[in-house]
Specification:
21% of the residues lie in helices and 22% in strands. By secondary structure, the chain is of the alpha+beta class. The protein binds guanosine-5'-monophosphate (5GP) and zinc ion (ZN). The site of zinc ion (ZN) has 6 residues, from helix 1.
Length: 112
């Protein structure tokens, strides 16, 4: 999508601090980290949120979780949280599917 921030980051039109990239997904550090380690993993294809996942585009989500498992192992993160906000009330501010990976500090539950 031409006006989507994360599509522009994936395309390299907006700079980002890359953690990992392959054919299907792109991982980069969050610009406003909420934990000592905080990066985002996004599909390269534009999907607006979890609510836009279906049988045709959903395989990338399993792939993203294998990438998260592998990256966190490499970074030495044994405990971490994976979050995806869907819609305004839940705090979604960028309408391109993304998984936050947060670690390196104690986490509270329930989340705020
Ligand atoms: P959401 O609020 O949609 O769950 O998460 C969007 C995340 O994207 C936020 O944590 C925000 O800090 C991050 N973000 C917004 N703009 C940029 C940017 O230009 N670069 C990077 N690296 N992260 C961004
Ligand atoms: Zn997009």
């Amino acid at each position: 999508m031409s006006d989507c921030l994360f599509c522009k980051i994936v395309a390299g039109e907006i700079p980002s601090s890359k953690v990992y990239e392959d054919k299907l997904c792109y991982a980069f550090y969050d610009i406003a980290p909420q934990a000592p380690t905080h990066f985002l993993v996004v599909p390269k294809a534009h999907i607006p949120s979890v609510a836009g996942i279906d049988e045709d585009n959903g395989a990338v989500v399993g792939h993203i979780f294998t990438v998260i498992a592998s990256l966190t192992r490499e970074l030495g993160l044994e405990s971490y949280r994976v979050v995806s906000n869907i819609g305004e009330q839940a705090g979604q501010s960028v309408n391109h599917l993304h998984f936050h990976v947060l670690g390196g500090r104690d986490m509270t539950w329930p989340p705020g």
